[in-house]
Amino acid sequence: MNDFMKEQGKPRKAIVIGNSMAGKLAARVLSDYFDTVTIIEQDPQPEGPYPRKGTPQSYHTHGLLKSGENTLDKFFPGIMQELEGHGGERLDFIRDISWVYQNFHFVRFNSGFEVVSQSRPLLEWRVHQRLLQRPNIEFAYSHRVVQYISSPGENRFTGVETENLVTRQSERLEADLIVDAAGSATKTPDQLLKHGFDSLSQSEVHINLAYATRMYERDPSVSHDYKSVIVFPNPPEVSKGGLTFPIEGNRWSVTLVGYGDGNHPPRDDQGFLNFAKSLTHPHLYDHIKSLKPAGDIHVYRFPSQVRRHYEKLDRFPSGLVVMGDAFCRFNPVFGQGVSIACLEALELQKVLQEVRAGKIKAEGIPIAFHKRLSALVEPTWMTATSDAFLYPNTKGKKPAGLGFMQWYVRRLYRLSEYDQDVYGKFIRILHMVEKPTELFKPAMIYKVMKAKMPKPDKRVPGSPVNRDREQTL
Questions:
Q1: Alpha-carbon distance 161 to 40, whole Å?
Q2: Rounded CA gap, 93 and 114, in Å?
Q3: Is 153 helix (H, G, I), strand (E, B) or coil?
Q4: Distance, CA of 70 to CA of 433 (rounded, Å)
Q5: What angle do CA 203, 209, 215 make, to 5 degrees?
Q6: In 3D, which of 279, 314, 347, 301 has the Cα closest to residue 206?
Q7: Upstream peptide bond of 265 is cis (omega within 30 degrees of 0)
Q8: Phi then psi dihedrals of residue 96, to 5 deg
Q9: How far is CA 138 from CA 27, 44, 114, 132, 318, in A?
Q10: Quick one: which of 432, 361, 412, 423 has its CA closest to 107?
Q11: Of 159, 175, 141, nearest to 30 (Cα)?
Q12: What does 237-288 look like in DSSP terms, one character per residue?
């Protein structure tokens, strides 16, 4: 066994599979512990903040939660200010967002809970520029991983075999640690079977989601009572929704979403507007109906959210860890993926620190890391799964306590229409800067139990935003 975390020197080589945000963050962490970090990426070398094939989400409205911002600023000091300097829009997530969910119109007030809104390509590009400043990080563009290379005893992965997609030449790269951040293109489950390890179990919830996004021109001289609009569905009756956020280049990024057959947004101009008009609340349609398009309509289908249970494997090869969407892939509508990847990178950093301190052996990295990731994603997975089963066509294993969770959260939404403390707490938990257990403290439980719910047959969609009304509900 090659113990590459000896105190007297840095380890040798690390490989990251995939130049995703999870891959970029992994490379940033690994660069503090390894002499060379190689990121293997199928896409060609990027030439600017533009969408790329390997990141379908780059064409769509992107969310970066506060926990993600805080982590990025830790790994890349000043990067959020840098994003703002390149056109990102700073907004108060509570005051500046008109948000309707399940027909509850959340209260707005000056919260000081600020985030920066920008496109996914701009975020990836600025992070990429920071990685280029680290001399021990290198990139293998237009390369794909063909297979993993194992040690003679099959108990450790020691590298990968790659194919150059331009020359079609193959190459073997050795590594002391491999990080699979390849997302849905992950090869790890198949490679584990090939090398004699147990089959991997996974949880899959089929949500049959599709969303369509279009950019619109944004006139900086035109002021609004808001900076963003979110009109989420009201399941099970209504499975359609939409949202818009301001991004760099004086643009609005507008995304329409639909769950289940017959609810998917179209890609034609009039169909896009008609879909927005059909939502339970008119505000999004009223916002975009007179705007000038600044690009084509892009459609993406997301059949299911998947959680792979690496933490349950009793036997796992050393020299390999899995993170990002390759570990757990969430419904992208809630914008949690990048921020989860940021928190996973922090866990990777902690594990490597413990190895360096002698608290964990090098061969124990995968099991320790995967158990921590499982604990990290559990609350978000439960929340996303609970929401998914509100829709009638969702398929999969329902979690224990589903009915109670849905009942409890709906009452929280009702309280969030008028109780600033409740909504502020809810937003901080949504952004993963506070733990979900805060929602189950005695004072919160008391409020939830006392919440007066509207009668379903009298609940109708409200009129466009009126902040004075919202603040006095």
A1: 11
A2: 6
A3: coil
A4: 9
A5: 135
A6: 301
A7: no
A8: -95, 0
A9: 9, 14, 34, 8, 23
A10: 423
A11: 175
A12: TB-EEEEEEEETTTEEEEEEEEESTT-PPPSSHHHHHHHHHTSSSSHHHHHH
> In the numeric block, which tokens belong to residue 422?
């409740």
Phi, psi (rounded to 5 degrees) for 427: -65, -40
pLDDT at 456: 58
What is the per-residue pLDDT for 56? Answer: 84
Alpha-carbon distances, residue 219 vs 199, 248, 408 (angstroms): 54, 12, 41
pLDDT number for residue 291: 95
DSSP 168-199: --EEEEE-SEEEE--GGG--HHHHHHHTTPPP
**Does 6 have pLDDT greater than 80?**
no
- Three-state DSSP at 413 gives helix
Query: Each residue of 20-40: pLDDT tens digit?
Result: 999 999 999 999 999 999 999
Which band of pLDDT confidence, cut at 50, 70 and 90, is reported for residue 1? Answer: very low
CA–CA distance, 24 with 39 (Å, rounded to integer): 8
d(CA 33, CA 4): 10
Beta bridge partners of 258: 210, 240
Its pTM surpasses 0.90: yes
Q: What is the pLDDT of residues 181-197, one digit of tens each?
A: 999 999 999 999 999 99
- In the block, tokens 């690390």 appear at 14
To 10 degrees, the CA torsion angle through 299, 305, 311, 313?
-100
Residue 4 — pLDDT band, cuts 50, 70, 90? low
The angle at the Cα of 131, spanning 133 to 7, to the nearest 5 degrees, equals 90
Query: What burial letters (b/e) apply to 129-140, b meaning 16+ CB within 10 Å?
Result: ebbeeeebbebb
CA distance 335 to 255: 12
Contact 226, 317 (CB under 8 A): no
Q: Are 412 and 439 in contact (CB under 8 A)?
A: yes
Q: How far apart are CA 454 and CA 401, in angstroms?
A: 24
| Residue 249 region by backbone torsions, left for phi larger than 0, else alpha for psi between -120 and 50, else beta | left
Residue 400 tokens read as 């224990």
pLDDT band at 3 (very low <50, low <70, confident <90, very high): low
139: DSSP letter: E
